[in-house]
Amino acid sequence: QHTCFAFSFESNLLFSRSFLLVLSFFSTMAAPLPWHNALTRMGCSAEAALAITNDQGLDTANEFAILSDVEVVNLCKVIGCPGGADNAGAPIVGHVVSLRTENNLKLMCFLLRYTKFISRTITAA
Fold first, then answer.
1. 15: left (phi over 0), alpha (psi -120 to 50) or beta
2. How far apart are CA 8 and CA 13, in angstroms?
């Protein structure tokens, strides 16, 4: 069973479509699945999703909920261009994070904050 939220954003149709897209990736009744699966369905590459969940340690709803829009932008910059070098001295190459993915991450973090505010639980699906 999926929880369906109906919001009307007449001034920004693109925002409302993206918001409903993000809502479709979450369920309040289903058994939790790994967050990297939800991230890949939102547009992250598998490598970028693993970098977010493993390297950055964001793997629970509460960790995503505390991210502001500015912090999501910074997270995408870190994933896209981490810098540094590996043991062999080769530069570490980042993972491409598209604008669509970045916007979906912002919407997801907003949704998680909102559901926490209204005392609902939400899990990755």
1. alpha
2. 9
DSSP string, 101-125: HHHHHHHHHHHHHHHHHTT---EE-
Instruction: Name the pTM for this structure.
Output: 0.69
Residue 109: its pLDDT value, please? 93
Kindly give the residue spans of alpha helices, DSSP state H, lying in 1-125. 13-23, 35-41, 46-50, 61-65, 69-80, 99-117
DSSP 27: E
Q: Are 67 and 116 in contact (CB under 8 A)?
A: no
Residue 55 has pLDDT above 70, yes or no: yes
Tell me the two tokens of residue 47. Answer: 């490598």
Ramachandran sector of residue 67 (left: φ over 0; alpha: ψ -120 to 50; beta: rest) = beta
For residue 65, what are the contacts with CB-CB under 8 A and spacing of at least 6?
Answer: 109, 112, 113, 116
**Residue 71 tokens, joined:** 């912090």
Q: Are strands 26-27 and 123-124 parallel, antiparallel or unpaired?
A: antiparallel
Q: Looking at the predicted structure, is the pLDDT value of residue 9 above 50?
A: no
| pLDDT score for 3 | 40
